């Protein structure tokens, strides 16, 4: 189980998260939705401590940490939490100086000190899983955005994290390439991977997520099962936001140039 | 055989020998040590505590802002006045190292800063510590960008080692000066010395080109879009 209790995050005078409490079941997929600047990315980054919460408590499985204003979190504790999480970034952030398979092996070899051969085996299996085994030795710069993101997903999964954090995993991709990433994430969801994703891709969220948390201005406006929040939201704020997303989606679909199949 | 060619051929072994035992070692050693000094200085300026940052800035300010020749004179002729007596070669080595350190620290600081922040985050997200991220992710990428400006510094250094002649290091240029003192043929000998420096820096340029090809094998930096 992953639990965030009363998480507050302050950047200078700016209170970005105003006491957020969420708990996620093992094997569940949760979508964090909401307007830009609403705090969904920050909340996600508070789970693997790329941002250290100003106050609150975080629990991932057996690891628990509390945060206090002005308190310094020991590097060891940060690393303990990070090893329980994997992260997929909007802009992939593959290591450009390593091949696809080396990207996946990196954490296993450098951090977990696995022997090279065992790491390679695991990396290949993961590449297989995301449909990228044929590009194992390719440089990231030679891959399409969708392919890069699939490799990035494999990299995040390599140390078998308890939870996969996805920060706008399809936002940098055009619809066609986004689809292949959605497919991979959907497959992982069916296999029971615990995931939290910040997204405003309705297709991604509605296809994969069971739970939706709607964040606005640093607070949770509404949370619940995806079917309820998307189709029958309680709050006016949520309704308006979902409607605007739908509209955007429809426009994109209508306006998208028809690309012939390769 | 014309006189000038005869003279050049006769003096060539002397000049090459001086290059081999002074110019080349002085260049390589002071560049290697200077790179270390530059890396340390750059890391302090980027990540160090405030007092050390000020100290590092002071060092760069002094060594970039004063002439190299004056620095060499201060170390070799000046320091004995306060009881620090150095032989010519170590004095030159220290001078060049500190000078190179000041210049390369600026280059290294810039290229480390040029690696996207997302690369740090990606490294942290797979559990790396700061130093693992630095070693495995940031420096290899920064290193690639640093090759052209560092090569500039390196090539300047090869030529600048001729300044060591002024503090009695018998390197290649001083060897040429000595031959001039007995033959009275400055034009011929100095052209020959210039040609040898040109040859040395041409070799370095060629090595730089090969290194760049090797480091560029993974293609361009990743753009943030698809």
TrEMBL record, chain A:
Keywords: ATP-binding, Cell membrane, Membrane, Nucleotide-binding, Transport. It is found in: Cell membrane. One of its GO terms (molecular function) is ATP binding. Residues 2-242 form the ABC transporter domain. The keyword S-adenosyl-L-methionine does not apply. Pfam families: ABC_tran. It is a peripheral membrane protein. It comes from the Bacteria. Belongs to the ABC transporter superfamily. This is Amino acid ABC transporter ATP-binding protein. It comes from Mesorhizobium montanum.
UniProtKB/TrEMBL annotation, chain B:
It is a multi-pass membrane protein. It is found in: Cell inner membrane; Cell membrane. The chain crosses the membrane at residues 15-46, 58-79, 187-207. Residues 16-208 form the ABC transmembrane type-1 domain. Its main location: membrane. Keywords: Amino-acid transport, Cell membrane, Membrane, Transmembrane, Transmembrane helix, Transport. Pfam families: BPD_transp_1. Belongs to the binding-protein-dependent transport system permease family. HisMQ subfamily. This is ABC transporter permease subunit. It comes from Mesorhizobium montanum. The lineage of its organism: Bacteria, Pseudomonadati, Pseudomonadota, Alphaproteobacteria, Hyphomicrobiales.
